[in-house]
Amino acid sequence: MAAVAEQKFPTDPEYDQYNFPTTAPEPQHGHPGHTTPEQDTQVQQLRAMLEQMGYTERLDTLTLLRFLRARKFDVEASKKMFVNCEKWRKELGTDDLPVTFEYLEKPDVFKYYPQYYHKTDKIIFKKTLGGDYFAFTLDLQ
């Protein structure tokens, strides 16, 4: 097995626009910033194969590395896993869920777990236990 390269995480500006750290803090084989040149090539191969199949979303390097690690960097097995995942997402409608989700239980949940917000920065929880009210704030700073 080739030694893991200590390097800056190679990103592709067409796919990778991250606003958070991308290099794993601890050197772990196959994780961002700790990949071999062969693994970087496998990411590019997987991306090219998926693009040929018509996939255009979730082709960023971090996502593809997750699928490759899950299949021990077997590109064909990773492709199959990615395709199955996308099929599952489409069947369940996970991409539309934040827009179409109806939280019908909210009034009942709120009755037992009410939550309010301080006018500037604190979440206020109010709990009723046996007729007694307990209130506390959560400081977000």
From TrEMBL:
Pfam family, one: CRAL_TRIO_N
Location of region: Disordered: 1-42
Source taxon at top rank: Eukaryota
CRAL/TRIO N-terminal domain residues: 60-85
PANTHER family attached to this UniProt entry: CRAL-TRIO DOMAIN-CONTAINING PROTEIN YKL091C-RELATED
Protein name: Sec14 cytosolic factor
Organism: Penicillium argentinense
